[in-house]
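Form 12-C: Joint structure prediction
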Amino acid sequence: MFDFLKKKLRTWLKKPEEKSVKKSSRTKKVGKKETEKKLRKQDTRTKAEKTAETEAELIIAEAEAKVTVPEIEEKEESGNFFTKLLKKITTSKLSENDFDDSFQDLEILLLENNVALDAVDALRKSLASQLIGQQIKKTEAAARIQQALKEAIMSLLQEPPSLLEQIHSKEEKPFVILFFGINGTGKTTSIAKIAYFLKQNNISCALAAGDTFRAASIEQLETHANNLKVPIVKSKYGSDPASVAFDAIKYAKSHKIQCVLIDTAGRMYTKSNLMKEMEKIIRISKPDLKLFVGESITGNDAIDQAKVFNDTAGIDGIILTKADIDKKAGTILSVSHITKKPIYFLGTGQSYNDLLPFTKKSVLRNIGLE
Ligand SMILES: Nc1nc2c(ncn2[C@@H]2O[C@H](COP(=O)(O)OP(=O)(O)OP(=O)(O)O)[C@@H](O)[C@H]2O)c(=O)[nH]1
Ligand SMILES: [Mg+2]
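Section 2 - Result
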């Protein structure tokens, strides 16, 4: 998910002297003697077994030695954030103009990778406050810029609380989690993944089939419940989702189940009747955690949805699904800055264990800044 951005940033953060080494192709040159020596060293077979095979191996090794291994040609940028800044950092202080001139290209890179405009502005501010007017020695410039970028990205993200600790610390169980978002974002699948995650951590849970609207939604959740061997509370299609949630909580209380996961129908945030229904589910079930489920790949759309759900229903945290097919990763970098809510998990596939607990550190590592 972060590969593209990582590669771009790596190219951008490369020092000019490193970039000047142009790597278009290289030829492996392994001499015959060296190859023979290597093979002799590795070979533990008896003399009789060796002869025919060694000759064949030598022929293959020599053929391989002549193969030209193409490498991805790294595009020589005429100037980027890093190289431009480096050029401008002399013994004097870095001016605002010089910084702005350098930042423009980084800004485009971030916007192209789905980082929201507000988040880009915040990043700019953070970088500017760390670099403008600073007396930076040439020798320290590279490290300082990289550190500043790291700090700037860190300040966009939020570290989520530990879900397990949150559940354990609630005295009167069950701990109730409500999932919502627009159609098809992965709510039901994420519920199943979280049920699996909780089970792995010895926390019992029950599922509430609160999507009484979409055809086959109840059966879909039921299949997961059966696979995972967790109880499900359901009702008829068309029945009130708030009462399904209420029944599930009652069931959990009487069966000493620690956590209830409430599924809801996908709803367009533009439809006020559906959002009203959401408010009723919240009023009745009093969730301890309201998780907005959005698709990482949809970029600014997911961020807009999160904003509206937060304004109407109030969200406590976010699950970004389909991060496995998101090449840009900008949503992951921006959604917490816009909503001020942490990402709890990233969905990284369709299996039960394709759920990645979110940490700031893992993001930095994934984009090559840690
Ligand atoms: N690649 C990938 N696919 C996912 C992920 N999460 C969910 N999906 C797929 O997305 C599709 C929709 O998932 P659902 O869980 O049914 O989504 P939903 O939000 O409950 O959908 P509605 O109930 O119709 O609103 C399914 O095909 C899932 O397998 C993920 O993290 N990665
Ligand atoms: Mg669903």
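Section 3 - Comments
The beta strands are 25-27, 68-70, 175-180, 205-208, 232-233, 259-262, 289-295, 317-321, 343-347, 355-357. The pocket of magnesium ion (ligand 2) is lined by residues 187-188, 211, 217, 263 (CB under 6 Å).
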